Amino acid sequence: MAGEANIWNPRTLIAVSADTKSVEEKLIATAAQTLFTITDFIYVVGTGALEVHKNGLLLTKGTDWVEQTGTTFAVISPSTAGDVLVASGHVGITGLVDVRDTDIFISNYQAIRDYTGTEVTLYSQGQVTTADGGESFFQKKTGAAPGTYVDDNSGTIVPTGGNGSVGWLAKKNAVLDYDTLALAAASLLLRVGDSVNIKERTSGLKGSGAIWDVVLTSAVTPNTADIVVSTGNATVSLVYRPEATVKISQIGGNITSTSAATMTALATYPHVMIDTDITKAGTYAIPAGQIFELAADIIQSDNLTCFNTVASSWQLIGNGEVRRSAGLPTALIAGSVGISVSSTCFLYRMTGNITFKHFSDIGVKMDGGGIIVGSVGRNTVRGITCTRNWDGMHLLDGFPTEYTSFSDCFLTDNVAKGLLLETGNINWVGGTIAGNLGGIHLRHPAGGGNPHHGLFLGANINHNTDYAIWGDKVANGQDFVGCHFYNNADPATGRIKLEDCRGINITGGTIGTNIEYINTGHIHVGYNRIAGNKMELANSGIEPTAGTFDRTKLLVEDNFSLAGRWDENDVANMEFLRWQGAATQVLTGATEFNLTALVGSVVSDNRSIFDGTNVTVPYLVDLTIRVGLNLAATAAIVGGETLLIERDPLGTGVWQALRNINMQPLANAAGTRFSIDATVPFQFTSGAKFRARLVGMTAGTSYTIAEGGYVSCTTAR
Question: Are the CB atoms for 1 and 102 separated by under 8 Å?
Answer without folding.
Answer: no
